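Subject: Interface between my chains keeps coming out wrong

I've been trying for a while to get a sensible model of this assembly. When I model each chain on its own everything looks fine, but I need the whole thing in one frame so I can look at the contacts. Pasting all components below, labels as-is. Any help appreciated, I'm running out of ideas.
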Amino acid sequence: MATLAAERYPSRFDPSRLDEVEPAMRANIERRLDVLGPGYLLIYNDPVAFVRGRGAHLFDADGRDYLDAYNNVPVVGHCHPHVVEAVSRQLATLNTNTRYAQEGLVDYAERLVALLPEPLQRVTFACSGSEANDLALRVARHHTGHEGVIVNRYAYHGITREVAGISPALGEGSPLGANVRVIDPPDPTLVPAGGDLASHMLDETWRAIHDLRRHGFGTAALVLDLSFMSDGIFPEQDGYLQGMVDEVHAAGGVFIADEVQAGFARVGAGFWGFARHGVVPDIVTMGKPMGNGIPLSAAVFRPEVARDFGEQVRYFNTFGGSSVPIAAGAAVLDVFEQERVPERAERVGARLRAGIGALLADSPHVADVRGSGLLAAVEIVEDRDGRAPDRARTTRVIDGMREQRILISAAGPGVNVLKIRPPLAFDDADTDRFLESLEGVARRELR
Amino acid sequence: MATLAAERYPSRFDPSRLDEVEPAMRANIERRLDVLGPGYLLIYNDPVAFVRGRGAHLFDADGRDYLDAYNNVPVVGHCHPHVVEAVSRQLATLNTNTRYAQEGLVDYAERLVALLPEPLQRVTFACSGSEANDLALRVARHHTGHEGVIVNRYAYHGITREVAGISPALGEGSPLGANVRVIDPPDPTLVPAGGDLASHMLDETWRAIHDLRRHGFGTAALVLDLSFMSDGIFPEQDGYLQGMVDEVHAAGGVFIADEVQAGFARVGAGFWGFARHGVVPDIVTMGKPMGNGIPLSAAVFRPEVARDFGEQVRYFNTFGGSSVPIAAGAAVLDVFEQERVPERAERVGARLRAGIGALLADSPHVADVRGSGLLAAVEIVEDRDGRAPDRARTTRVIDGMREQRILISAAGPGVNVLKIRPPLAFDDADTDRFLESLEGVARRELR
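Reply #2:
Try treating it as a single job with all components included. I did that and got this:
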């Protein structure tokens, strides 16, 4: 039986249990199933609907306050007033595409490039992380003349056919490309006895390159999400990347850092996931948090990588880079500066992770508490020694937190790694509330 | 020498002429070239920058009023107050994704489906027309088990790798898929002597199906933009589609109507490009005008076509269907109802096309004035009898109109068909101004 994408969600609504849902929600779900079809998943056994958001908080129709420790899109907080104001003003003034000269477009592109290492200088805007990754692959293929792509074993890079083809996380219903090879994430438990992480990652990379060569594809790109979000969350590992990238370069390929998850100060230690590694990617892609909810994404290239594609293929994205999304992106950067978001996220994240670690240190069902910046992961297992993933228990923790009105989810091949990834607006009071609730849930589920 | 995408633009800025541009614009373009690279094309030899928009009008920094007879994205008018207000309100209230229950999402999906024939019932939202078409192809392949795709000879369906692969309009820099076959658009001049359009289109379709079968791909989908925008604009032809679709169905494929251009009342005679043909597509995709500039697109499926994909693959588009884009889409439909946009567009379009026809009827350089609804096309040729495309003259007309501060462009394989495609906010006064300016330009360039 194939593993389907939906099965990788820890707590989701099962339509066969529609009768158990309270009437107003049931009516909404029935209409939803009719008009949106089976492809639209609802989070939680007991689904939730919100009517208002502010900061890291979402409110339902009864005014109940949910703490959002899951959504990375509203990076500076749900409905941040500065972003709302800037976007509303732009909406009322002008919204044209990039084929007319625009000051705001160039200003924002320059601000974005200034956040990246010097060789990354050419920006192309799009709407979604999928579009950005899709473009990055087109450019990588065009530049290298190769077809092969190396990704992690449970990677997720998006939903166009091309990037779905490099996203094993989508499950067996969605085929990988014949030109795609998967390698381990930097999970220390996967390193063979006596080895080290860097050597293991290098071996993995080398084997993939060799296999792509043997099949005549060559290596166009190594694509990594440096938070390794869907592989189980390993942002804090270090020391292995330079060797992998050197190997890929030697094979004529490029390194694409997919910063849709790790970027925009999510994992601390610099603004981007690649920052801690001392490696400068050839292409960086970014998305979700970039416009705080207004669709905006980008791929940024080393000039020599993008040149031929830019001259020979061109690329016009109707909405990408148009005035309103750009105003959203600029407003997000304003807030990052005004509120010193990266510093706050790093500080709050450290406190949150330390608190979680202290709470769960002695749990027989917690194999690891890890993470970086404002991204925390808890690996839940049947028992510590055997380390077998305990998916059912993980789901109970998520549902328990949802009862406390705190939103989290899970990741990893075993769907047993709690994914705690709040808006970067998350503050100390939010951290206190989170830890207090987790303590109660852990007392029930993790002892 | 390969034909590149950029070469298909009639009037575009040539960076080698940067010295001739006035200082403020020159500074902007220099910075733009540095940070965006060569892939970002600027419309017009003499580029333009706007600071404000309203209705079918755009204004530059000196307050000069440009008449927009080209942009289809701001369908109900640039910065329409109702859309601005609705989107701003939603932005300040809530913006979450589809994995939480949302009334607005279901309400809008139902309104959208109500605008389509009954079998088209399942909506999936995305950000761009490219994403919608990419998804439509994934679903078509999954449903049919085939790989082959049939499109028009100069079709354009978007910019992901998958849909770029079915977009010959992108030029030789961008490869078509091995599984893609191209057929003539419904251009009466392509019909062999003694034949009729319907038979010719059927022959074309049959040949493509046969060739796909011989190559082992089978036929997954026929994809048509029923305005045939990039093939030279032939929305008004009729009587040929049912036979083509029957042939595709008999081969086990589906028919995808790409309504990114023709839809939302652009071509009159019903809300969609397929409406005049009495054919109900298996999948309809839509984009550009849908959110009046907020990124929003959709693919709508017959339930039986979408079922397996929905159950086995799932599809989560982070921004597609989130609260703000949905609010934009709903506000656009409000304006369509309140201002009776389709009726106005049909009436104004008929007057515009009649006026253009009357002005240019005697021009030795105009082979045809055609179009439908608020989409007008003028085919410009060296002389009427030979009908050789006159691209240089077409560009002079476009530049002449730009001097009069009226925005139009050109389409077609010869880049010699004026593309007059204003926001549907275009009114009688706009039509008067357009015709008056065209008369002056035609006196110089088309006599």
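Reply #3:
Confirming on my end. The radius of gyration of chain B is 22 Å.
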